[in-house]
Design a protein that fits this description.
7-stranded mixed sheet; Rossmann fold
C-alpha cells in the first residue's frame, strides 16, 4: 500500500508538471507573440495587445548657444506638426490613435554635446530622433544612430560629408547643399537675361567656417565654372567677427557682381551693413542662415534692400492650399511669426516620421527604420490621405535614395538616403527684399509672369 501511495503521488506530480508545461508550449521551437498565432476554428480570439498610448520621438536641436534662434524656430515647426497629428488627425491610427510625445535635448550646436544629448535620447526609449539643425552635430551623431540602430531624420543639416554611408537609419528630408546647383543654374541664367549687357561673371563666396559654410563653398567651387562664373573671393567668417571692412573693400575693388553668403545672423548682418556703408555695388544673395532670420530686415534696416535669399518655397509666397494658408495663419497666431524655412522643414521631417509610424504600426525602432526605408510620398498624384505632409514644402514628394545618388546628382562620390524628390528647382525660389519686405523675384510664375526683380 505504501508503495502504491508513493507511486500515485509521483504520477500526480508528473501530470502536474506536464500540464504546466502544456500551458507554455508552442507549435514551433521559437515562441511567437500571441497576436501572431492563428486560433483553431471555434477557439476564442486571443486577447489584443495593450494599446500604445504614447510614442516618444526625440528632438535634438540647439536650444542654447549661437544657433539657439534656429533651434527654437525649428522646434516650433516640429511641435506644430505633432499637434496636427495628435489633434487634427487623431494620432497614429494604426496604433489605436496613439499620440506622439516629444522628448527634447539641447545640442548647444556643439558636436560633443550633441553626441551626449543623442545618447540620452536613446536611453529615453524614443522610437526615432529628429534634428539636429547644425551640420557639425549631424556629422557627429549620424554614426551613433547607425551604431545603435536609431531611426534619425535630419532636418536642415545640409552638409554632405556624412551622407556617404549605406544604412537604413539616417535620412534627410530636405535638400543637401549639392541640390542647390540646379536652382542656381536657373537663377544665374535668369539674372543674365535680366541684365544681358552686364552678365553675372564675378562671384564672391563668404561662408561660415563650420561644416555648412565650407560645404556650400565646395558646392559653389564645383558649379561656378559650369555657370560661366569665376569665384574671385573665397573667404570664411564667424559669428564672432566684429569688423569685415577688409573683406568688404576687397569685394568692392574686385568688381564683384554677386556675393554668395552662407553665414549665420551676426556675420550676415555685419556684412550687409558694412557693404552698404562702403557703397559696394555688388548684390548679396544669402543661402540661408542669417537672411532666413525673421528679424533680418529689422536688424539691417535699409541696408537689407535688394538683398536676395535663395529660399525654400513658403506659404507666404503664394500658391499654398487653403488648408496650408489657414494653418500658416494659425501658426502666426501661436508663435508670433509666419512659417519660415526652419519650421517648414521641421514640419516635413516630423510628418515623415509620423507617416513611417503609421505604416510600421509599431513604435519599435527596427520597424520604424524599415518603414522609413520604403517611404513613398508624392505631392501631386499620390495618396490624398498624405497631402498634409507636403503642405509646407515645394518639393515633389519624399522618397529616400537608399541605393545612392551618384555623380549625376552628387559630384563627390555616392550620397545615401537623401530625399530624391526635391524637383528640378529643389523646392526653392529667389526672394528679394523690396520696400522692406520679402517678395518672390524668381520664378516669375509667382508674379503672374511679371518681372519684378531689381538687378541693374
Amino acid at each position: 500500500m505504501k508503495a502504491k501511495k508513493i507511486l500515485s503521488i509521483l504520477l500526480a506530480a508528473l501530470m502536474l508538471v506536464s500540464a504546466l508545461a502544456g500551458c507554455n508550449s508552442t507549435t514551433t521551437p521559437t515562441p511567437a507573440p500571441v497576436a501572431e498565432t492563428t486560433p483553431a476554428a471555434g477557439d476564442p480570439a486571443p486577447a489584443p495587445e495593450a494599446p500604445v498610448e504614447t510614442i516618444k520621438v526625440g528632438v535634438l536641436l540647439p536650444m542654447s548657444g549661437s544657433s539657439s534662434y534656429y533651434g527654437g524656430v525649428q522646434l516650433d515647426g516640429i511641435e506644430f506638426c505633432v499637434d496636427y497629428v495628435n489633434n487634427t488627425l487623431g494620432g497614429i491610427a494604426s496604433m489605436g490613435g496613439a499620440k506622439i510625445e516629444l522628448v527634447v535635448q539641447d545640442s548647444a550646436g556643439n558636436p560633443e554635446t550633441g553626441v551626449s544629448a543623442f545618447e540620452k535620447l536613446i536611453e529615453e526609449d524614443v522610437s526615432a530622433i529628429i534634428g539636429p539643425y547644425n551640420s557639425t552635430v549631424g556629422a557627429a551623431t549620424a554614426p551613433v544612430a547607425i551604431q545603435y540602430g536609431m531611426p534619425y531624420v535630419l532636418v536642415n543639416c545640409t552638409s554632405e560629408n556624412f551622407m556617404d554611408v549605406e544604412n537604413k537609419y539616417v535620412y534627410r528630408t530636405n535638400i543637401g547643399s549639392s541640390d542647390n546647383q540646379g536652382i542656381w543654374g536657373l537663377i544665374i541664367n535668369y539674372l543674365n537675361e535680366v541684365r544681358p549687357e552686364n552678365p553675372t561673371t564675378k562671384i564672391a563666396v563668404v561662408y561660415d567656417s563650420g561644416d555648412w559654410g565650407t560645404t556650400s563653398v565646395e558646392s559653389w567651387r564645383n558649379m561656378a565654372p559650369r555657370m560661366g562664373c569665376e569665384i574671385t573671393i573665397d573667404e570664411a567668417v564667424s559669428e564672432s567677427s566684429t569688423d569685415l571692412s577688409t573683406l568688404v573693400n576687397k569685394i568692392k575693388s574686385n568688381d564683384v557682381d554677386l556675393v554668395i553668403v552662407a553665414a549665420f545672423s551676426a556675420a550676415t548682418n555685419l556684412l550687409v551693413k558694412q557693404m552698404a556703408e562702403y557703397e559696394v555695388p555688388a548684390y548679396i544673395a544669402g543661402l540661408g542662415g542669417g537672411v532666413g532670420d525673421i528679424e533680418f530686415i529689422q536688424n539691417c534696416g535699409s541696408a537689407a534692400e535688394n538683398v536676395f535669399y535663395s529660399a525654400p518655397w513658403l506659404p507666404k509666397y503664394g500658391s499654398a492650399s487653403e488648408e496650408a494658408a489657414a494653418l500658416n495663419e494659425k501658426f502666426e497666431g501661436i508663435y508670433g511669426y509666419e512659417m519660415t524655412m526652419e519650421p517648414c522643414w521641421g514640419w516635413l521631417g516630423m510628418a515623415t516620421i509620423a507617416d513611417a509610424l503609421e505604416r510600421a504600426g509599431s513604435a519599435d525602432r527596427e520597424a520604424v527604420a524599415d518603414a522609413l526605408y520604403v517611404t513613398d510620398i508624392l505631392k501631386a498624384g499620390g495618396d490624398p490621405a498624405k497631402d498634409w505632409i507636403m503642405m509646407f514644402s515645394g518639393y515633389e514628394g519624399v522618397h529616400f535614395a537608399t541605393e545612392g545618388q551618384h555623380k549625376e546628382v552628387y559630384s563627390q562620390g555616392v550620397r545615401y538616403n537623401n530625399n530624391d524628390r526635391v524637383g528640378a528647382e529643389a523646392g526653392m525660389v529667389l526672394a528679394q527684399v523690396q520696400d522692406g519686405k520679402w517678395v518672390v523675384a524668381f520664378p516669375e510664375v509667382y508674379n503672374n509672369g511679371v518681372e519684378i526683380i531689381n538687378y541693374q
